[in-house]
């Protein structure tokens, strides 16, 4: 019988699925090799290049994000003191959360590890705006470097205390070790008298270690302090997926308690609101207060 019209073209399109499968396999292999072999300096530089060139971090781009997500607005209204409270924003990118908070009357100190993004954020601060911008990674805390050449270094402790703080959207998930995660939360908790908001990726199922090659690669990444629940993609760089109870454990080790924990990924990112323990003393910095 003669072939139906369009049969050859339709079959060719179906065959092209093999290209997708081959690329998917290549993508998974590449991620495994990066996690096993790339050192921290390479991953840091990759993130810098990736996010500095991303459209949603570029104020001149049509896809630039310059608003708070509904869940962020809800956390602000429920847990944060009213403006003009002083707020610390880490992993601030090009300032999405920071500028939104300033528009709502808050006084903001923001920092970002990418030199390009920190500079771009600082250049958008206008005279009279209650916002200070620095360059720093979470691992650099409490030290903050100037975002612009004319600026001066500072310490988070000297700029606080802050009445609320947040880690920029998903930025906590880029930290590559348990120690760095605990230390980051501890630094934020010491600088903040109120809520600390953190968002992250959630691990939905255990990651199986199938095959001798994958087990060998997992062993190699373990020597770099990286877990089976860690991942890598060209869009986001290194990321860590948090297991059930992990945020609670990190908060406990950092001297914080979990006031709210939402793992609904339809709200963009699972997130938690952490609070300082009521029995922990704290020293004020810039304002010379004690709480």
Summarize model confidence as the mean pLDDT.
88
The proportion of residues in beta strands is 15-25%
CATH architecture of the domain at 53-203 and 243-276: 3-Layer(aba) Sandwich
At CATH level 3, the topology of the domain at 53-203 and 243-276 is Rossmann fold
Radius of gyration: 22 Å
Structural class: alpha/beta
Low-confidence stretches: 279-291
SSE order, one letter for each helix or strand: HHHHEHEHEEEHEHEEHEEHEE
Word description of this protein:
This protein has 291 residues and is an alpha/beta fold. It has a domain at 53-203 and 243-276: Rossmann fold (3-Layer(aba) Sandwich). The protein is built from ten helices and twelve strands. The chain has helices at residues 7-15, 17-37, 40-52, 70-79, 96-103, 115-123, 156-159, 178-191, 212-223, 246-253, and strands at residues 86-90, 107-112, 131-135, 143-146, 154-155, 164-167, 196-199, 201-202, 230-233, 237-242, 256-262, 271-276. The strands form two sheets. The chain has a nine-stranded mixed beta sheet with strand order 5-4-3-2-1-6-7-12-11, sandwiched between helices. A three-stranded mixed beta sheet has the order 8-10-9. Strand 4 (143-146) and strand 5 (154-155) form a beta hairpin. The radius of gyration is 22 Å and the shape is globular. 35% of the residues are buried.
């Amino acid at each position: 019988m003669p072939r139906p019209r369009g049969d050859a073209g339709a079959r060719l399109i179906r065959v092209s699925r093999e290209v997708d499968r081959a690329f998917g396999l290549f993508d998974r292999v590449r991620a495994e090799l990066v996690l096993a072999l790339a050192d921290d300096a390479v991953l840091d530089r990759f993130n810098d290049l990736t996010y500095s060139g991303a459209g949603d971090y570029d104020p001149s781009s049509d896809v630039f994000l310059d608003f708070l997500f509904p869940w962020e607005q809800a956390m602000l209204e429920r847990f944060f003191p009213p403006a003009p409270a002083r707020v610390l924003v880490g992993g601030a990118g090009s300032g999405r959360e920071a500028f939104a908070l300033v528009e709502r009357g808050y006084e903001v100190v923001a920092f970002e590890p990418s030199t390009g993004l920190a500079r771009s954020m600082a250049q958008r601060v206008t005279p009279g705006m209650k916002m200070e911008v620095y360059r720093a990674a979470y691992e650099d805390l409490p030290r903050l470097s100037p975002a612009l050449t004319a600026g001066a270094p500072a310490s988070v402790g000297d700029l606080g205390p802050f009445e609320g703080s947040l880690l920029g959207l998903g930025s906590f998930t880029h930290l590559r070790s348990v120690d760095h995660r605990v230390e980051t939360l501890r630094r934020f908790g010491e600088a903040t008298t109120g809520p600390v908001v953190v968002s992250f990726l959630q691990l939905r199922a255990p990651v199986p270690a199938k095959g001798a090659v994958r087990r060998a690669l997992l062993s190699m990444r373990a020597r770099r302090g990286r877990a089976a629940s860690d991942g890598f993609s060209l869009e986001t760089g290194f990321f860590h997926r948090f297991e059930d109870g992990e945020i609670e454990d990190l908060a406990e080790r950092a001297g914080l308690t979990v006031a709210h924990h939402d793992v609904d990924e339809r709200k963009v990112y699972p997130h938690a609101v952490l609070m300082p323990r009521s029995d922990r003393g704290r020293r004020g910095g810039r304002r010379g207060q004690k709480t």
